[in-house]
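Regression report. Comparing outputs from two consecutive submissions.

Submission 1:
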Amino acid sequence: MKEYTTSPAGLTTLEALQRQEQFGKNELTPQKKESFFHKVLHIICEPMFLLLLVAAGIYFILGEPRDGAIMLVFVIGIISIDVIQEWKTDKTLNALKDLSAPHVKVIRDGQELTIASVDLVPGDLMMVYEGVKIPADGIVIKCSDLCVDESSLTGEAEGVWKITTENVDPSSDYWRKDYCYAGTLVTQGTATIQVDKIGATTEYGKIGTNVAAAPDEPTPLQKQTGSLVKLCAGIAAVLFALVGVVTYINIPDHAFGDRLIESILAGITLAMAMIPEEFPVILTVFLSMGAWRLAKKQSLVRKLPAVETLGAVSVLCVDKTGTITMNQMTVQDTWAIDGNVDNLCEVMGLGCETDAYDPMEKAMLTHCEKVGFSKEHLFGGQLITEYAFTNELKMMGHVWYHDAEIIIAAKGSPERILTICDLSSEELLVVDNKIREMSEQGLRVIAVGSMKPATEAEIPPEITDCQLTLCGLIGLADPPRESVKNDIALCTKAGIRVVMITGDNGITAASIAKKIGMPNSDHIITGDMLNDMTDEELCEKVKDVSIFSRVVPEHKMRIVKAFKENGEIVAMTGDGVNDAPALKYADIGIAMGKRGSEVSREAADLILMDDNFSTIVYTVRDGRRVYTNIQKAVGYVFTIHIPIALAALLAPLLGVGPGSLLLLPLHVVLLELIIDPTCSIVLERQPAESDIMERKPRDPKEKLLNASILLKSIAQGLVLFAASFGTYYYVLGQNPENPELARTMGFAIIMLANLFLVQVNSSDHDFAFQSMKRLAKDKVMWAVNIGTLVGLFIILYTPLNAFLKLAPLTVSQFFIAFGIAGVSVLWYEIVKLIKKNYHV
């Protein structure tokens, strides 16, 4: 967009219309939301759901609409959980959105007009003043003490004093002092700004474009579960064909149509048993419950997979201001040249505004209160006159009639205050050394001086005419949060690298890093150094660098990409518009809910409602707990699938007819719909193990179902298969005319074994009774166990049994099934005992 020269009368209405036709409206392209239909379609396209839909379709074709309807209920249930969770999150986010500035004053046709911000065009002259959020990028034509808060773009909390374009010195800085940016806030002064860029071409807009361009990559867990499901689907396809052929051969007496449909149903039963359809249920339940727990700890999860991804984080990139620090200036050090600190503090307070707006003045007055100088004491006298602060002077003063004398209290940058102080060369050397010492500690140094005219007539007209006596120096800083040092130590112990990325200078950042015990705090890369590095060089440098200073939004993206190229799982925190692209590119973006911008929150996966670093550490811990419990649940799912799959495979090979199978497709769906998700709730509720934050981050390439879990699952599954199928086959042999009774015995053993299995698999180390003891007061666990038993009784002892092709059991038959179920699972407790004794 080329730079326009506009007359003092501004654009004409016709020129404004022509430019709006050329450049469009001053608005960002709204992000397209995924429609409800597309979300549902994406879920349905999963292999397991397609299989269920095929099975349901066959039931409808066979004239069994009730069986088909049960399967459809399962699919609808899963979709509902996902959609409801997303709706809840969107609803909360809408409540968090910032209010934007919808109108702005401009000069058009020689007159001041108030127009909608979206109607700004390049060349417009807009008028800004204190409290206005600037709606477009532009050049400062005229200004009077203009100070702008650009922290949303640059990350620096300190206001930027602007100057006109004709007075600017050539500078290589990315952020110009003669230029104002969309999305920033005027904190002081007034200005006339010639609009240069609007909409997507502004710095704010470019960030939005980068956010939109960031790819939506699947999380490590999604990749692992996807590959696992595909593997199972491949095996299921082969077995589907095998069982279909065997069944077709076993029923030569059936008509061709019935023979074909029975063969397909038998194959689908096995395929459904082989494909872990429960994974979406388990993942949704675990991640939704994890999100709910985090919400209680002030973390709002926008995307459910973020809960688990947090547990895999190996690099945590954080902003300094507000995340590591309190985002609240405080007086850290006071030094009086004559040793009289009380006098220094009193003069400092007198030099502040009575109604302080500046964060540094607020900190100074708070410090005065702490050392015994109340506002009533400081401002109880008569204010005679004041010397206003300007960007050129960089100092200010108040003239008070205080404690029966006239006193001029002045403060400002040491470089300016010292020019009007009466100091010897020796004193000046001492002061210079002290300033350097304070600066090296990362403190913002303010000099304080005073003067006591005898009469009002002797008060100098300008502050530069004063002859001050230097009282001393004040060191201010934004201190680290109290808990951060412990949190950093905990992250280091957990193998998580904490990296500081800030727009502030390197000295201040390094000083804060040393205070909080951040490793490699002396390794710093600046934005200028980044500009001179290739992506390959940056990938090498980030391996041992902990601080990146003076960075701009593009730098943050490059840093995150470099870590990801090195195989790290990266979490990025941020609050400003400048953080949004990096939040989007990170494996997990964490935005601040209190002070965060709308753009950063929309780009993030997780929003911290309390802006607290400790909350991030808690979410990492809970993410690890969730992943560990998901692994337990996956092992459990494979265990329970083995008896279902082998029963479907072995029965046709043993010559069992399709009508006498242990499990029909309807029963497989019933197990998946009722038993597996319900029992998984108990596994999800398992608390984090004591050493969970002493382990290194897991390898993102690590298999969700590793060798030890797979071996354990196969062993448990084979024993459970032998128990359930053996009982079923024995009873069927005794009562071939009553397959319903045999089926019910086998079915009951599988259901009851679930209750034991979930407790046994709650821990690899603790015994089942210890796991139960931990959750003994957990009402949900008892509700699940009792609910499963009640559900079984309803299935067996109500008219529902005929509908489900089952039969009621006698009391003795029920207790036989219960005993067999217990033995088929509790044998693993002996394995745990052996492991403990031999430290395996």
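Submission 2:
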Amino acid sequence: MAVSTLTPAAPALAQNERRVEYRIEAGDLGEALKAVSRKSGKEVIFTSEAVLGHTAPALHGTYSADDAVRVLLGGSGLVAQYRKNVIIIRGRSAPSRDLAGRSADQNDIVVTGSRIKGAPATSPVTISSRDEIEKQGAADLGSYIRLLPQNFNGGQNPNVAGGGAQGNNNNVSSSSTLNLRGLGPDATLTLLNGHRLAYDALAQGVDISAIPLAAVERVEVVADGASALYGSDAVGGVANIILRPDFRGAEISARLATTTDGGGRQAQLSAVTGTTWSGGGLMFAADYTSSGRISAGDRSYTSMMDKGATLVPSVRQISFVATGHQKITEGVEFKIDGSFNRRNSKYDNPFFNTGAVTENGLRSNPIVRTYSVSPTLTVDLTSAWSANLSGTIAGSKADLHSRRYAASVETPGRLIYSNDLRAMEAGVQGPLAELPGGEVKLAAGGGIRSLGLSVEVSNTPPGSPTIVTERFHTKRAVSFAYGELTVPVFGAGNSRRLLYSLDLTAAARFEHYEAVGSVATPKFGFRYAPSPDLTLMGSWGRSFKAPTLYQQNQVRQGVLLPGSIFSDNPSGLPVLLLAGGGTPLRAEKAETWTATVLLKPRAIPGLRLQASYFDVAYKDRVSVPIVGATAALNNPIYANLVRRSPSGAAVEAEIARLPQGLSNFSGSAFDAASIAAIIDATDRNVARQSARGVDLSGEYRFSVSGSQTLTLSANASYLESRRQVATGLPFSQLAGTIFNPPNWRMEGGLTYSRTAFDASLYANYIGGTSDTRTLPIGHVGSFTSLDATLRYKADGAIGLFAGTEIILSLLNMLNEKPASIQNSDPSLPPYDSSNYSAIGRQISVTLRKRI
């Protein structure tokens, strides 16, 4: 159901009896239904496809909300389900069975952050419909997440330049992964219709740009720990991509875009088709996108770099998504989702600014293929209880072809990262008991997952055969069980003064990871409304992230170094430094909590204000445990990682654990009995990270006259974060420093809508940061862009132009440029590409035809 079309308004007592005077002129049905919602304060929910092409008669007079909707739907063939606080409109000829026979105070909307239908949200949820995403000028989900104030654009981002030299941010496969709160792409879980997807490349992030926007109904983002509900990775939060349901007909879109500074030309072709029948439906979407490269020679502020250096890679991508459902028999329904994506990108990274990449540099050509298939069987056990059985088969193969040039000598290389996922899950949900405040509901289930990773790294030196430097395949089995409970203490049946409603929630999950161990994660929440206008929410929980398969299987390395480079080494003997993997790793753990205030005053219909405070304490992060290994011998915080004067047998035992043998850089012959010390700097669970701050959001939608409306919206996030690399070391600031999230990110917009036309203007602000790499500390300026979108729908046209839509977008209207930074290496980008974009002003036009 399209929550995006829901007009924010608090439910009022006895709304069915409330009568309101309406003066709605004949016109678009969707706009008329929104007007009823605004006027009555009653939620009216419908899909954009259901009302597309339908017109509503004039509505003049005094009606209850239910009666007003009945008049507007007359002759449309649409069916409405009337409930106490909501009206749900469907495009079927009869209500589906899961609606008929349910009590009036229940609903079937499942919002990310709970596994119980109709459960009250205790964590803030950001819901963006496809329509709202397009109004912001985004043409794909990768562009959309880079507009979210709660998301950090670093991590895995195709706009990151410089070959990963800027912090820990990179562009390995030109994918786009969510990075909520800047905790890392592997600390945010991304789902498709509630199902997991295969990981991308080495980390445990998921490429959200692989799902075409044309197939999406909405995206729901919960920026709060959610491992108690969804398991590993949901430390920063979880995002759920909801596909378009019950699509009928066909829709074709063509988009062309270009930048005014040069480079970055785009062509995009999308198609959606679908049909419904008695008891079932099918939707299929396809998308082809071609984006041109933006090079240093295309931008004035990168003139010091080699003009062929890539700032934004060229990308060619084709994506397919399908979803369908079929009622097998009374109370039994089968659903299936599937996706496929292939992306080919290219970028050049010269090592010097005095010559082309083919002299000294790296030329990369990542080719990525992903797929997923997720079937689900749902069975109504009773009129209130249901059970479901679901499975997923998914895979991602990142095949990175490269050519490294040194003094114009070419060395081809290849890196292949293949991830696969196999999962099966079963669960039940329904009411346990009836309380005066409502029904106590339970969701419980469990399942198994199998994760696989294959890695192969090779290169072909000139005149030599191919050398494989790393190759392994590993799998991990996961089993889990979960339970979630909601208890309505006060509700419609027993509300009283200052106790309009009170809901308590509890969830717990147990997961066992092969070769890692077991983790139990609880979460508790409440939602309290002293009146229909004001709601207070809070949640506390624990989340975790299992170590990645690459971290667990990283090659253990040993290097023999000259003793003269180490302080406090009077013998001067060589030192054996161990690095890489080989040390058992535990799950990374976090404690998270949020507190939220939500205001929806009935006196001002259409106004919604929300403020949230969040706090994440993240520990046991996998990291290198030693900073400055040459001073480790005399630093007491590393005492447990240093073995002085080891025996020859101990040295030989460590070398026997090195798959690639010992690398001797000591300048003398190896002698196991003449080693000053062994320093173990292999990866361990030693790092800590914290993130806290405030999220602010607001929306005010009101009618100007007739079917004309204005919508004001704003979303802001303030973040403070810091990190301790290893136990005993001081914490260092992250948020607000270069190549890390800024303290402030904000976006706000104004949208004017009428029957066949709407216009949007958005401002996006990315705060400045401090350049802490040198003294004195420098300042990196902020980045503000203005984006405008105009859309016209020829709904009333006939013949060739019937069902035609045109969208014009002008992004970064003022052509804001990223602030300059100083680099010791002139070949590196002179701006922070992990935060600020080099695309510049972009003009696009989209032509869409509904058949």
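Expected: both submissions complete independently.
Actual: both completed, but the second showed a warning that disappeared on reload.
Relevant detail on submission 2: Residues 126-547+586-623+684-850 form a domain with the Maltoporin; Chain A fold (CATH 2.40.170.20).
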